[in-house]
Each structure stands twice: as structure tokens, then as C-alpha cells.
Amino acid sequence: MRNQLITMAACLSVFSFTACQQSQNGQSGQQDTTQQVQDTTAAVSETPAADTTNAAALSTVMTVPEKVKAGAPIMVKFTVTNSSDREVEFCKWHTPFEEKFLNSFFDIQDAKGEPAQYIGPMAKRVSPPPADAYTKVPAKGNVSAEIDLLKGYKLSAPGTYKISFQGAGISGLSNVNEATFTIE
Q: Whole-prediction pTM value?
């Protein structure tokens, strides 16, 4: 029973990722229905990968204050830069561009490697994502968003923490640095 649940969860994740990427491609008229069916079949049988067309053009810098006082907001800033000569968009689901936590998309660990507990909601999504689920990045431009980690994670113990982004499968933002911060 457990293996069936794991398999079903993996299939749903692949389907959500595929729908997000196909919706993005479909909106720009780049694929026909036959190609979408073939892509969906291939995505189910393979490990999902970000849309390399957009991923290659986008890089993301994640910044967080080096030191924060216990209980004070811990603001993480995401800046997505487009190095291409054309406008590029990405799915904002599972990123700070949603402006609130609707899923756990950061991996935060203390110095001992213990993960910080996620305390936010776990939203269910429609598929394919609607047009407003995408953020556009102008050619040779960038966009930024900030989010308070305390709104989604239990971070009260003093110490040094490492944060990494885990939302690439949905958003397509795969070039994201890791960062560290210290709670005093």
C-alpha cells in the first residue's frame, strides 16, 4: 500500500510539472496537441527536468541577511535574471513570487543537518496552471520577490542555518545558489 501511495505521489508530481511546462509552451503556440501527448508520455516514464529553453536563460540569486535576532523577520530575496534577448517566463508556484508560503520549497538545515520544520499550508493545484501562474522576466532584465521564512518555517533556535531552493521541478528555476544565515 505504501509503495502504491509513493508511486501515485510521484506520478502526480510529474503530471503537475509536465502540465506547468506544457501550459507555458502551449500559451506561446510552440506545440501542437500530438506533441503534448508525446511529451506527457515521455515525462511520465522519465525523471522530470526543467524546461531547458527557459532554464538556460534564467539565473536566480537568493540572498538572506547574514545575522538576524531571534523572532525578527528573516527576509529571503529572490532575484531572477534573464540573460537572453527575449522575454522569458517561469511558473511562480513554489517560489517567493507567490508572496506567501503555499508549499515547502526551501530546504533549511541547522549546523547539525537537522531540517527546519515547515509550518505553512500545502496547497493543491489545478492543472494546467492558469496564465496568472507565470511571471515574465524582460529581455536582459530581472525581477525580484521577498518572503519571510518565519511565515513558513519554525526557526527559533539560535544557530547557523543553510538554505537551499527545492522548487525547481515546478518553477523551472534551477540555477539558484545556497545561502547561510545565523539566528542570534
A: 0.70
